[in-house]
């Protein structure tokens, strides 16, 4: 009797210990998740806090007198004259209207620097399109200079005003008050390629470059990956050689991505002579990098098709090929697609291999084909983040937001596909 | 007990198989002689003629020199304790073991005097003639119609949609499922009840008009009502098909089959008319099994 009681006592004590252990274990888990969530919140706050101004542009609306005499231009349709003309002059004059007291040459130059470097090009383009406007007065909207833009967007932060002289700051304040300088949604960011001038730089070039690259990656990696997985899983004999291949595929998935860049450099550029920094090349390299991921996830998806379905089809007299094509592959497709999308998302965020094959070049034009020079989103972010101008820092953060939204979209698509196409049996 | 058949010697020493818990003083392998079956394993003009069949999984021998005839349009039940090789043997009849790499089959297996395991023989054609229904209902995750139509489609049995419709309707009628599903042929098959799914699998098997239907414990996943329906179906089908059924339920074997074969440790111990097996079996192991002393 006493023995029994003491045994119950022992069990009770050990129970207490066990429950304590369990609680502690749960606590560890919750702490880990809390830390992860906190880091995520900090990351997002930082990026959004720094980057939201990237989606704002600062413009200056001026009444420009297109005075031919001032521009040394009497025929806007004459190309020689156009190339020699001074399109900066009307802008200075227009600005001077707001500040009649400024007359000294040095001050005038400072004043003219408020407008963006491409403002004069805007006038040139207008006249080139419509030469008959010479001599008229036009209301035009110009992007302000990067330093002004940063100053206006961060009016409360003195760290952003150091690039402007006190005189310039006064002018800008006054122009803002008059409503001449205004902020608005940054459509420039979404409609242009890269630029040396932050306020004139856009991400569209990188987005298009990324899309073209991803198309190449998908077109190569998905069919090859699925075919390899189907063959290895369904048709390949089990021997030393296939074991060797299997081990190597698994190893490839863990190879640092920059190695694939070296491979691309050596093989695609060195041996096959493909041009540098084009989406086809980037796509090929990223396809190689994504292949192991796709093969591994596709094989897992094929393995998860219940053997009973295979047997059912074989039992009716379906050939191996029919079993695979009619039953196994369709049932494995959601898993294959999920794996591929996740592989693609990985490829979309990849920078290192692309640096080696020249996709890090400064490219202003929006790529118009698979063989035109391009850059991609993460490389563009890298380029901006390594620039000194304050304007580029916010663009880098804005670019990160764009990239993240692409990633989230792709992962959401993967989840949706899996939920949607998942079959139960 | 085995007076009418003197082929069984009771003290044959073999050392290969481990002893099973038989409540007899002698271990089971001492009272089975390899390659010897009591009762009436042979028939005239059989559908299947199987002689000295051996099946190996790698090194281990799962089926040991079994000889058996399966007559035309009979229902033969394979019974025996778990792991006795009855399913393995069944799967030899339409070469479902082919997909297992380490499995090899020896001996003479003839379907209508053609060798089943002839390397030149097309397994697709064989399986079109010898259909199979599995233990767990395994409809394709497609519509009811597509499940039944799949076989005829891949074999090209119907050229026109209307022919295919006829085959589907006919098969579903034969499987006793038509009235239950005729209004929802496009519904997905996985949404049906277990019994309906199994009858659908039977319909799917008969849609390619096989000569033989192999059933591997077709009712083990079904409730008694669904089981009764499937058994009824087997009785109806026995008029036009040769049916080989593996079952763990002796009552089921007694209800549906003409002949019963008792397997034990990879040996075919006894084959007899079903009535005889369940009333006065020739072999003492069969008797032990049907009286529930092991299994």
From TrEMBL, chain B:
Keyword Cytoplasm listed: no
The record's annotation in InterPro entries points to: AAA+_ATPase, ABC_transporter-like_ATP-bd, ABC_transporter-like_CS, P-loop_NTPase, PstB-like
Q: Give a GO biological-process term.
A: phosphate ion transmembrane transport
PANTHER family per record: ABC TRANSPORTER I FAMILY MEMBER 17
- Any single Pfam family the record assigns to this protein: ABC_tran
Gene Ontology cellular component list:
membrane
Q: What is the lineage of its organism?
A: Bacteria, Pseudomonadati, Pseudomonadota, Gammaproteobacteria, Pseudomonadales
Query: What name goes with this protein?
Result: Phosphate ABC transporter ATP-binding protein
Could you tell me which species this protein originates from? Marinobacter vinifirmus
Name the domain of life this protein comes from.
Bacteria
Chain intervals with Low complexity compositional bias:
1-16
What range(s) does the ABC transporter domain occupy? 48-290
Q: PROSITE patterns per the record? A: ABC_TRANSPORTER_1, ABC_TRANSPORTER_2
The protein's UniProt keywords, in alphabetical order, are: ATP-binding, Nucleotide-binding, Phosphate transport, Transport
Renumbered residue ranges of the record's region Disordered: 1-21
Question: Which GO-annotated molecular functions does the record name?
Answer: ATP binding; ATP hydrolysis activity; phosphate transmembrane transporter activity
